[in-house]
Amino acid sequence: MTEPGVTREESGERPAGRAHLVGLGSPHGGDRLGWLAVEALREALAGRDDINIDCLAQPVDLFLPRVASSERVLLIDAMRGRGPPGTLEAFAPGELPETAALACLSSLSSHGLDLAGTLALAETLGLFPGGIRILGIEMPAEIPKEADPEMPEPCLNEATRRRLHAAVLGWLDGDAHRDIGPRWPAGPGVP
Description:
Shape: globular
CATH superfamily: HybD-like
Strand order of the largest sheet: 2-1-3-5-4-6
Radius of gyration: 17 Å
Mean pLDDT: 76
Number of helices: 5
Strand content: 15-25%
Order of helices and strands: HEHEHEEHEHE
Largest sheet: 6 strands, mixed
Helix content: 10-25%
Low-confidence stretches: 5-11, 99-111
CATH architecture: 3-Layer(aba) Sandwich
Number of domains: 1
CATH topology: Rossmann fold
CATH class: Alpha Beta
């Protein structure tokens, strides 16, 4: 516990409670970036005992007991139309774009609740009292496989992996200097 008047960052204390890192998406197409991200991070975070890591296909899976019992959650999902491919952008639940920029956002979905509705319900139910954060990864423009069968599936390059790792460590450790920030651009020449 921190001393009065001393922030957690100043004391070097990590945020309390179990964290859950969730990749949202599917195993196909650009929407797989959330899954690729958490799989890339799984090995890097293997020595940590304060985090669970999952890939989920739909936002309502956040209500599964293994996820809902966590103190706080970081969701990683593909997004489109907010920057060059590889750009990372962080959102609080109330900051999600009005447009369908995040891959799983839509007002109606065959999966049930959309991301914004799921997060609003989670907050109303008092889940994840330590906080909810969403990290979007800008995906490349989709080209139908029929148009170019040799087109490789989307992937995370090394620069994006490093930015993701730094952002997630900042979130896990409560380090404001390595926090996700609002936006981490891909940078010139970084696909």
